[in-house]
Design the sequence.
């Protein structure tokens, strides 16, 4: 962790405070390009947008995938006020971003929440219907 990393993390924490002040959950993220330029910033807007996916990390991953070429994305760092959740971690993997630096870990975040809060696991069943389900997929990945 460099001084620059800490400086950009402090900006992510500012964005988290700004999100909270605006009536949203307290999380913020930014992208810093290969030359140290801030490329984009976002705060959580899941309450004001009424959108459960409006996490700043997901917004930044989508922005990176849309706006950056592969090489630039791979040399871009996401700074975020908290360790990305599972939804955002999946999007970050698909975005091509090269690095994530976070302030609070998920464990530290959970320690700040009331006991018993969080999301219940949803039962998932499968696999099933292999012979039918594989048809639209076969040959797609070359
Ligand atoms: Zn998330």
Sequence:
């Amino acid at each position: 962790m460099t001084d620059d990393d800490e400086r950009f993390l402090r900006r992510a924490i500012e964005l988290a405070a700004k999100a909270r002040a605006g009536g949203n959950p307290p999380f913020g993220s930014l992208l810093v390009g290969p030359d140290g330029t801030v490329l984009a910033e976002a705060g959580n807007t899941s309450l004001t947008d009424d959108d459960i996916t409006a996490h700043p990390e997901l917004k930044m991953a989508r922005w990176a995938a849309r706006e950056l070429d592969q090489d630039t994305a791979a040399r871009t760092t996401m700074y975020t006020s908290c360790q990305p959740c599972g939804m955002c971690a999946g999007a970050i993997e698909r975005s091509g971003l090269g690095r994530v630096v976070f302030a609070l870990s998920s464990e530290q975040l959970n320690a700040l929440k009331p006991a018993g809060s969080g999301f219940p696991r949803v039962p998932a069943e499968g696999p099933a219907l292999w012979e039918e389900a594989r048809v639209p997929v076969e040959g797609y990945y070359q």
Notes: Residues 3-21 form the longest helix (19 residues).
